[in-house]
Structure formats: structure tokens, C-alpha cells
Amino acid sequence: SKPHRASFGVAEHLQSAGYRIVPVNPNEAMVLGEKAYTRLEDVPGKIDIVDIFRRPEYVPDVVEAAIRIGAGAVWMQLGVVNAQAAARARSAGLFVVMDRCISQELFKRGR
Questions:
Q1: 70 φ/ψ sector (left φ>0, alpha ψ -120 to 50, else beta)
Q2: Where is 8: in which H helix or E strand?
Q3: For 18-56, how does the pLDDT look when each residue is reduced to its tens digit (9 = 90+)?
Q4: DSSP string, 37-79
Q5: How many CB atoms lie within 10 A of CB 67?
Q6: Among 37, 82, 45, CA closest to 64
Q7: Percent of the chain with pLDDT over 90
Q8: pLDDT value of position 108
Q9: C-alpha span between 81 and 23 (Å, rounded)
Q10: Separation of alpha carbons 36 and 48, rounded Å
């Protein structure tokens, strides 16, 4: 709900490009018209990509949650680097992107 944050801008861009965003933040009820959930495990349905905007020391817990829910990928945004968590995700069969912005990657591809 904080438009000055990168997470809001990226979510807004993804949504405007036609992607469904599902906010996971225990401090929010709604973001960009979408119901927010406290934990990944609370989200109904399949999650394709877990886009991580947390500091690197929090990434292992997010990766473990992504593995538990059967996500297809974890995407660590710019500045988010945790090689051990990335290796853990890969070993569990998840596609991993680290230290890149999903919004910028979409923009490069013209979406």
C-alpha cells in the first residue's frame, strides 16, 4: 500500500501487464485491489513465481515456504542475494532468479 516502495511499483507494473499479483504481507489487507495474505501457505491455488522483496537474511524462510507450497520459481529482486537459499531452491526443483528486477525484465521484452 506504499506507492514509494519498489514492491508496490513492481506489483503495479505486473498487474498492468496482465499478470495476477497475490500480495503476501501480514501488515496489509488489500494491495492494488487484491486480497493480501499473511503467509504464502495461506494463498489458495497455485503460485507460479514467488517474487521476494525481503532482505537477504529473510530469504531462506521465504524459499522454504515456496518449496512447501510447490511454487515454480523464486525471484529475488535487485539487491536481494542469498546464494545458499538459491541453491536450496534449485535443489528442490525451483527455477531461481537472483538480484534482478522482474519488472525491468518484462520491460526489456516489451510487455
A1: left
A2: helix 6-16
A3: 999 999 999 999 999 999 999 999 999 999 999 999 999
A4: BSSGGGS-S--SEEEE-S-GGGHHHHHHHHHHHT-SEEEEPTT
A5: 18
A6: 82
A7: 91
A8: 80
A9: 21
A10: 17
Pairing of strands 73-76, 49-52: parallel
pTM over 0.85: yes
Written as one letter, the residue type at 90 is R
Cell of 42: 495461506
Closest CA to 58 of 32, 84, 38, 35: 84
| Segment 89-106 mean pLDDT | 95
Give me the residue label for grid cell 515454480.
Answer: 72
